[in-house]
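Bumping with the actual sequence this time:
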Amino acid sequence: MGELLLMARIGGRRAAIPSAQVQSVVELDHIVPVPRAPGFVAGLTALRSRALTVIDARRALGIGHAPDEADGRAAVVEVEGHAYAILVDRVEDVVEAASEPERPDATLGEGWNRVSLGMVETAIGPAILVDIAAIVAGPDQAAKHAA
């Protein structure tokens, strides 16, 4: 308990990202598409002269792309030495976890089950604690491991 979490909305659900894994939260102005990239890779962007691969969290979960009302912000993270911007629908706040992650009572859906580390309680309500590396891997990688 007590871990700080970046709270975000993805596909209508509240997601919690451990703040220790978040380098910054940025507003993405320009994303350059990458030919032949997997569908969950929105493209590339630059941040302080550093190239970031932009991952659309919704597509990585297999629930479509960000809606028009999305705020265009992303959590900048590093996975295995590579920088990523995780595009979410909306960034809400940074709060403290009020519980340890617990297995959810109901199934969350295939994509959410793949990235979920459990449900956590916070001052602003329950949230799905997400595994950033699993989001970066995307649905295609998960299917390869299942085969």
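The tokens above came from a reply further down the thread. Residues 132-146 form the longest helix (15 residues).
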